[in-house]
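Quick one:
INPUT:
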């Protein structure tokens, strides 16, 4: 079992990636609301870390990103903190504790996080800002505008989990050589 220091170091690395990846996407004019780059390291935290650390990565990443880059802006940063906390927490609990496969864990987390995003944005819009919350427009943004990001998550996250998490458990992560067949064909995918 990895030590607390390992979990802290991995959390720090994933938080740093979560801050830098959106900056890279924005520098190429690739919209964050479309490609969801900050979500990727948070989902990976859910697969790699215990729930406390994974949830912390999700909570801290958007906050530090806001402090360093002013992205996401206020008040979106607060709803993103809740949404990304949910992604990290739910992924870790479903995958590591309940031992479900990669796709069920990822999809459950995506749905739970989007539900939390809807509720937190509704609370912020209606009760804090005092404006009317447009449920249809917001949900359209979460599920339709973000389709490229959702597709990236559904393709890239399982590959990364297979390479990093499952490979490390089997002691194969450092033994991948050129020409090795890398596929998702076994161990807790579905």
């Amino acid at each position: 079992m990895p030590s607390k220091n390992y979990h802290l170091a991995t959390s720090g690395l994933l938080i740093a990636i979560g801050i830098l990846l959106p900056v890279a996407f924005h520098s190429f004019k690739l919209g964050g609301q479309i490609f969801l780059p900050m979500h990727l390291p948070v989902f990976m935290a859910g697969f790699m870390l215990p729930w406390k650390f994974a949830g912390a990565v999700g909570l801290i990443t958007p906050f530090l990103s806001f402090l360093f880059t002013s992205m996401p802006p206020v008040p979106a940063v607060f709803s993103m903190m809740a949404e990304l906390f949910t992604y990290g927490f739910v992924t870790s609990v479903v995958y590591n504790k309940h031992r479900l496969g990669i796709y069920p864990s990822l999809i459950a987390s995506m749905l739970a996080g989007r539900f939390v995003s809807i509720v937190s944005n509704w609370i912020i819009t209606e009760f804090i800002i005092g404006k009317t919350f447009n449920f249809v427009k917001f949900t359209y943004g979460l599920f339709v505008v973000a389709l490229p990001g959702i597709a990236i998550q559904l393709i890239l996250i399982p590959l990364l989990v297979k390479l990093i998490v499952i490979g490390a458990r089997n002691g194969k992560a450092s033994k991948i050589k050129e020409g090795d067949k890398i596929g998702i064909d076994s161990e807790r995918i579905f």
